[in-house]
Amino acid sequence: MNNHIGNETTSQKTEMRDMKEIEKFLIHTLIKLNIIHPNFTGTITFHISRGGLSDIDRFEKSLKRSQNLYKY
Length: 72
Description:
Strand order of the largest sheet: 1-2-3
Number of strands: 3
Largest sheet: 3 strands, antiparallel
Radius of gyration: 18 Å
Helix content: 40-55%
Number of domains: 2
């Protein structure tokens, strides 16, 4: 029974590590696409319509304004 608890903890640690890697990849991708800059602090909203990306809103806390980056 102790092994099951140990495996669960290891599984949770692996999942946390995987999520951090995905987060780093996503942030790096958003920077490469010029959606955000490396020091971005704020909120990004992706609008999806008919199965595709229709708009991206960015609200940067330091600028206190919303910007529509892409419109299709």
